[in-house]
Amino acid sequence: MKQNIKKMANHDDMTLGDLLKKAPKKSIFSTIGQLFKKKPLTFEKALKNPLKHTSLDLRNQNLKELPESIGQFKNLRQLYLDNNQLTSLPDAIGDLPQLDLLTLRNNQLTSLPDTIGNLSTLTYIDLKNNQLTSLPDAIGKLTRLTNIDLESNQLKTLPDSICSLTRVYSFNAANNQLTQLPELFGNMTQIQVLNLHHNQLTHLPESLGNLKETVVYFNISNNRLKTLPNTLHKVVFEDIYLDNNELESLGTLGQGGYRIDQLHLKGNPLLTIPETLSKRPGLWLSL
Known about the structure:
- The chain is mainly β.
- Helices cover 10% and strands 13% of the residues.
- An eleven-stranded parallel sheet has the order 1-2-3-4-5-6-7-8-9-10-11, with no helix packed on it.
């Protein structure tokens, strides 16, 4: 325990002993609390020794731009840029050969540079709550991605190249303006979490029947779906959310005999519910 406290004692180069000497009248708990008030690392400070850093946390720093010198952080694996005022990223963002995680939620990004496709080691990208209207084709080069979050942007379409991201298991593009998905969207066969609620989708591609893993969360609620693909019976689902669409029929959903734990269907003008679903043991059905 004592060793851990000593490791944390780095408050502007002041040791725990120095703090205690300078504040004898304060309680030890209040004094130790100062250790956790260390000022956050700024970009300017980090730039003094860029190769030292494998993780860079620049959240909540009111950044309006990210300098091209970000490309000097060649050993960076994690870059956190959430809750700033960024409207764009420099081309040098693609000069980070070891970057594994990139978070940019709650900014004002309207586009991404093509150089984003150079991040060949990236597995996680979070772009939630920005103002993106499109994605570059280069996004399809990020073939190691497993998680992609695009929620709450202004996307109307997704590039066909996104279908090359065959390792993705969590895909979130809820709260956008999507009217359709690429026809080969189902080529992302590892998807287990698919979140597309609150868009303007009128149909889903037949390729969704290619999904190989158990889809534990499938949320297409609050869209304008009139029909479902005839291939969905091939997919193993757990929880399905289809509320508030324009479905009159469920097509082949449920005909594969696979388990479905929950099926949410409220707010649809359904004419019938197939017996393969209505009489399925253990199914929680919300109408």
